Amino acid sequence: MTASLAPVHIYPGKGLGFISMPSDDLHAGNLLSSYIHAALGSSLHNVLTRVKSHPQTYPAIDLAYSSSDPLRNPVVLKLPANGLRLRFDGPDQRLRLIEVVDFSRVNLVYKNQDVMKGAKSAEQPTSSQGPSFRHVYNRLFGPSYPGEYIPRSDQSPYGTYVLSYPGVAFSFPLQHSAWSDHCDFVALLSSSAAQPATSMAIFQGSSWPEVRAKLFTQQPQYPRASAVVSKTRESFADEVEEFRILGAGRLEVSRRTSPPVSIILGETTPQDLIAEFGPPDAIYRKHDRRISIHRATGAVGGDTLNPSLSPRGGIEIADTDHSSSNSVTDDSDEETLGGQVSDPASVPAESFFNYFHHGFDAFISHPSTPGPAFPGSGLPDPTGPSASLSSQLTVTKIILHGNVPGSYPFNRHRRSRWSIHLDQSSEELNAESHFDEVSERLRGVWKGSYPNSKEGRAMQRPMVLNRGWGDSPESSVEFLGGWEETTAKGQRSGSDGHDGGLGNTELFGFPGLLFEVLKNGAVSCLTVY
């Protein structure tokens, strides 16, 4: 006897799930009483983590993205064995479109009604073609406004008729010779001129033509993690939207529903972090000291700097391990202490709070003087830690993870978005800015702070950091030259802007800021110290 495919429930405008939902479903403030497998608005990190945790259900995972500009172009997660394709926007990496491209590999159900007639099995799938127009129109979703006809783009005798309902649409091949602007679309699609649906799309909006142009730019209605909807504020911390870097060790964190919260390096305590962001997902003791030799001399890229000549005593090379970005091996000096902190007072000195679902890490240590204020920002330079705080553990660094596709630590954190506010008048830099723009702006800001051009040039020389030795990327990836044009697959090479799989990145330091940059100019990680 063949095993039946598990039913996958359709929730127009919301997502796909395995458990039926109440009729009122998701509205602002309502609780989600079922587990949505793929909810619109979910983060790439959230979806990919869950998919990878069920290898028997999802034996094949393909991730497609633009190798030259992965933060502005969409990211496509393909599940070929399940007949699904999920599209995420590039800047925020949130699920915007769910497509069923092979109806034989998924058992779709809408309000307890099978989308395809007849039961399917995992061993003997039926034709990849989907439901007929008559079944969709009469049995599943009911009457609809006229759809949109898309003429053929090649020599095929068929165009495509897209029938839209709020939050869901079906694509039917239609003989081009039979199409007319004045025809009765119901009669036409019920005739032999139309074939069964070849795909189905779930999206946020009233119709596909209305939402198509703003699919990747409109504000998602639902959170990045579906679990947030079913949790109260007391049991699940509000999700982070953006970090605003103000300089002088100050960050303002905007959140989805709660008021913004400030993080002040050298003052914010572990207790403050837990109160605002919840307990960390993991705590790592100690940190990487492999480049501490450069801190002793101020050497960057082979030049030796006089710390007294640099702004605020030189640009510190912040710790680059960030704990969570390196795999823990047998010879590592790191110790995982667990994700739940029952007594913040017991937190060890020099440890990382890892917030994978928020996209950042916090380094906990004894207070130190943070980086200086941006010239022209109007903020005063920070002073040293007060005597009352000198023995108390505080946050001394914040590490913001870009989760850039193609980077070595991809999918260990969800994407963290940030913006740098240099002054009141200039346009802000943000997490999607190409590093050439970031570097040019910051060099201009700090130009007058260096005593001579030689030191200014020395400050900008990058240090190469290798993250790839001893491990290998875990996901199957392909690179997109355009929207879906594959230019390379599998192992990366220098010809496409990557580093041949070694995981090499470059570190660029500015006062209070350390950028980890990929070869394509995307910022993989930003440390604020």
Strand order of the largest sheet: 10-11-12-13-7-6-5-4-25-26
Return Rg in Å: 26 Å
The gross shape turns out to be: elongated
Proportion of strand residues: 25-35%
Mean pLDDT reading: 78
Number of helices in the DSSP assignment:
8
In total, how many beta strands? 29
The residue fraction in helices comes out at 10-25%
The count of domains is 2
Determine the structural class based on helices, strands and strand pairing: alpha+beta
Unreliable sequence segments = 19-36, 229-233, 287-339, 469-502
Largest sheet descriptor: 10 strands, mixed
Span between termini: 62 Å
What can you tell me about this protein's structure?
- Strand 6 and strand 7 form a beta hairpin.
- The protein folds into two domains: 7-214, no CATH class; 237-467 and 503-528, no CATH class.
- The strands form four sheets. It has a ten-stranded mixed beta sheet with strand order 10-11-12-13-7-6-5-4-25-26, with no helix packed on it.
- The protein has 529 residues and is of the alpha+beta class.
- 11% of the residues lie in helices and 27% in strands.
- Residues 19-36, 229-233, 287-339 and 469-502 have low confidence and may be disordered.
